[in-house]
User: Fold this.
Amino acid sequence: MFFIAGISQKREDLDYYEPIMCSCCIKYGRYEAYMEYSVFSLFFIPLFRFNKKYYARTTCCNSLYLITNKEKGLMMERGQGHNVFLKDKDLKLIYKGICENTCPNCGSQVSEEHKYCPNCGNKL
Assistant:
């Protein structure tokens, strides 16, 4: 007799949309939330989830945040996202998105009339 078991990574989009003024690119956008987790399966039947992490991504510049408040993440997962409002203390910046007024090479702020970055000289 043999067993077929395995652990796999899954991602699930959550029904959560919050309009914001982005702190990275200073534009209007919104948070879209999703959850990543691991699943233990036996004979290709998922038995339980573990190692859940909740993330929020901005639509304006694609910055990615880890949601550190697990209670708010659970509320989003249960479909109660309309009662959740994310604050700066609930988020940890993982990836700062590329903004229109930012140099993609060094990340410094540039104005729209520049063709080259005044900090590193890279073509914009």
DSSP finds one helix and five strands in the chain. Residues 5-95 form one domain. Residues 45 and 113 are 57 Å apart (CA to CA).
